[in-house]
Amino acid sequence: MGLFGKEDELVVPWEKIRKIGMDVILVELPPYHQQRDDISKY
Predict the structure, then answer these.
(1) What's the pLDDT score for residue 8?
(2) Given pLDDT bands bounded at 50, 70 and 90, which one contains residue 21?
(3) How far apart are CA 11 and CA 40, in angstroms?
(4) What's the rounded mean pLDDT across residues 14-42?
(5) Torsion sign (Cα): 31, 37, 40, 42
């Protein structure tokens, strides 16, 4: 089970985190035009 009760989790490598705020974490992701399968390999 995921952090908020969902089954899917996304593990973000520490070097991809750009900024941590009070209620948001900004991360670097691959460009949007790539296929969704590419994001799951992130």
Answers:
(1) 72
(2) very high
(3) 10
(4) 78
(5) negative
